[in-house]
Write a structure and sequence with these properties.
The complex is a heterodimer of chains A (about 300) and B (about 290). Chain A has about 300 residues and is an all-alpha fold. Chain A has two domains: about 55 residues, no CATH class; about 230 residues, MetI-like (MetI-like fold, Orthogonal Bundle), CATH 1.10.3720. Chain A has 14 helices and no strands. With about 290 residues, chain B is mainly alpha-helical. Chain B has two domains: about 35 residues, no CATH class; about 200 residues, MetI-like fold, CATH 1.10.3720.10. Chain B is about 65% helix and about 0% strand. Chain B is built from twelve helices and two strands. Chain B has a two-stranded antiparallel ribbon with strand order 1-2. In chain B, strand 1 and strand 2 form a beta hairpin. In chain B, helix 1 packs across helix 12 and helix 4 crosses helix 6. The longest helix of chain B is centred in the C-terminal third of the chain and has 35 residues. The chains are: A mainly alpha (about 300), B mainly alpha (about 290). The interface between A and B is large, with 116 and 113 residues.
Chain lengths: ~300, ~290
């Protein structure tokens, strides 16, 4: 992804003309090229190239074990008429929007709580991170066991509220995602909160600001940049989420919880229609681009807010 | 929202206690309602599945499914049967080793690449450094599910997930290191490489630790690539192996599943218990730029 442009060597401002080797050693553009090389090589070889391959594959009818021929937009035409695909798009958007919004709200609230002075602060903070560090699939299994219709403690507690219908399945998946995502949002926002100087709150209190005003006019504006970053990550990871849904429902019941990622895996790897799977995955790119663009402008705004230069 | 209370009464107590900032303005009942109670509720919700996991892994089989005679929220005669079975009768230690191997390898590779890249972007200020800093972020545009097709070793694929975030985190951290230190070193004739190794890296240890933790967690938890790439049982990583080996059609060996999940999470829990403060402080560095 990250190509390095270091072609034009800056004219060296040294008096006597140095040798080429000296120029290569001291010119910062060349040094930077060497420094950037490992990261760039990884990203180009293992990200840009497979991406290119995947996009190309979405224009072929490749299956597992057989190379495909170019079929143009046929895969996409198929998808356009495929109601399951549109259901997956709808699910993905619903999943991302609802889960991200709630993760943000709960995460921010939790961060504000954790930022306050209390006994065992460090212990509580590390405990909060536990859902984030337990492998997703394993926590999904724990949730499965909790949701399980037959032996579930939920049904044990509520004595069968009713048959699990589509919305309940969606709700369960979204809840599991929120449960897992809140700690990351909270800890990251907590880090942002710690950079806010307490003297600002003291000054505002002296001026008679209420709790809400202090939050609205001090905390929130100063937190905007980190909110932009953390919400970008949260949205991106939620949108491309695969493991939670796959481990929890495999897209069922009756495709009700299929996300684009799981649908793409099912069509591409399980059914072996690689071309179609790649087309679904490619269709996710515009959404991700939109998410990045929004957060990018969020971060931009903050730069001029602070009047800082491009350091 | 729930910051300290109204500036009402009892400023006299301020001299005696060791509270920070304005927290002396708060009364105890108010703190209970606005702080401890919500925190307690959130913690219970967050930790319940973990408790459930631990509980299931030490429950005897008959208590697992019989909810009428045994209270499902508690265990009567705990047993270590599931855990010992896991460790001595399956290939679990092998899976654990695989996961550790992949996670450590991929993390090390990506940290090295990220340190170099972040240093170049932040401090060498080459042509287009800013553009590259943004472009690296764009790596997250690529949906992970498009990458199944390339059959590569996991150690080489994971860095693509890790490098962008680690670079971003380290960029923020490097910016907090005073530029004057590097200038002094330059005047004394140090090369860029020496500056990086002898000055910047030692000062950036907390940032490195948290980049390491984050990357390690991501590797440890990764599922989709591992699911696609790893076919033979001895080579599997913990998440994939547990799901594949302990789920037999419709039969879930809950005890083993939960024991496996619990034991598989322990290394990370220990890691975080030691380093969470570093993690928070490094994020702070990355945030304030």
């Amino acid at each position: 992804m990250s190509t390095v442009q270091t072609s034009m060597p800056v004219p060296a401002a040294v008096a006597d003309t140095p040798s080429l080797w000296m120029r290569l050693r001291t010119n910062r553009n060349w040094i930077a090229l060497w420094f950037m090389l490992p990261a760039a090589a990884f990203l180009i070889l293992f990200l840009a190239y497979p991406l290119f391959l995947g996009v190309w594959m979405s224009f072929t009818d490749e299956r597992i074990g057989r190379t495909g021929v170019f079929v143009g937009l046929e895969n996409y035409q198929w998808l356009w008429d495929d109601s399951i695909f549109w259901l997956a798009v709808f699910n993905t958007l619903l999943y991302t929007i609802v889960a991200s919004a709630i993760k943000f709200a709960v995460g921010l609230y939790l961060a504000l709580l954790l930022n306050r002075h209390m006994p065992f602060k460090a212990l509580i903070r590390s405990v909060v991170l536990i859902p984030f560090i337990v492998p997703t699939v394993l926590s999904a299994i724990a949730f499965w066991w909790i949701y399980d219709a037959q032996f579930s403690i939920i049904s044990w507690s509520l004595i069968r509220l009713g048959v699990i219908d589509h919305n309940m399945a969606r709700g369960s998946v979204i809840f599991a995602n929120i449960w897992r995502g809140v700690p990351f949002v909270a800890i990251t926002l907590l880090a942002g909160l710690q950079t806010v100087s307490p003297s600002l709150y003291e000054a505002a209190t002296l001026d008679g600001a209420t709790n809400w005003q202090r939050f609205r006019f001090i905390t929130y504006p100063l937190l905007t940049p980190i909110i932009a970053v953390v919400m970008t990550f949260s949205v991106l990871f939620t949108f491309t989420d695969f493991q939670l849904v796959w481990a929890l429902t495999r897209g069922g019941p009756v495709n009700a919880t299929h996300l684009m990622a799981t649908l793409s895996y099912q069509r591409g790897i399980i059914s072996g229609r690689l071309g179609e799977g790649a087309a679904i995955a490619t269709a996710m790119i515009p959404f991700l681009a939109a998410a990045i663009a929004i957060s990018w402008f969020g971060m931009q705004r903050r730069k001029w807010q602070q009047g800082s230069n491009n350091d | 929202m729930t910051d300290s209370a109204l500036p009402s009464k009892a400023p006299a107590a301020a001299q005696s206690d060791d509270s920070e900032g304005m927290s002396f303005l708060e009364s105890l009942p108010r703190r209970v309602v606005t702080l401890y109670l919500p925190l307690f509720v959130i913690l219970v919700v967050l930790l319940f599945p973990f408790y459930w996991m631990a509980l299931t892994s030490i429950k005897p089989d008959e208590q697992l499914i019989d909810m009428d005679r045994y209270n499902p929220f508690w265990v009567v005669h705990p047993t270590f049967k599931h855990i010992s079975k896991l460790l001595f009768e399956t290939q679990y230690p092998r899976w654990l080793w695989n996961t550790m191997y992949v996670a450590v390898g991929a993390t090390t590779l990506s940290i090295i690449a990220s340190v170099l890249a972040a240093y170049a972007i932040v401090r060498l200020r080459f042509r287009g450094a800013e553009a590259v800093g943004v472009l690296i972020f764009f790596a997250y545009l690529v949906p992970p599910s498009i990458l199944f097709i390339s059959q590569l070793s996991l150690i080489l694929v994971y860095p693509t997930l890790l490098i962008p975030f680690s670079t971003w985190l380290l960029m923020g951290y490097f910016k907090t290191i005073p530029y004057e230190l590097e200038e002094c070193a330059l005047i004394d004739g140090a090369s860029r490489w020496q500056i990086l190794v002898k000055i910047v890296i030692p000062l950036a240890v907390p940032g490195l630790i948290s980049a390491f933790i984050f990357s390690f967690t991501l590797c440890w938890n990764e599922f989709i690539y591992a699911l696609t790439f790893l076919q033979s049982t001895p080579n599997k990583t913990v998440p994939v192996a547990i799901v594949n080996e302990f789920v037999d059609g419709d039969i879930y060996k809950w005890g083993s599943l939960m024991a496996g999940a619990l034991v598989g999470s322990l290394p990370l829990v220990i890691l975080y218990a030691f380093f969470v403060e570093h993690y928070v402080s490094a994020m702070t560095g990355a945030v304030k730029e």
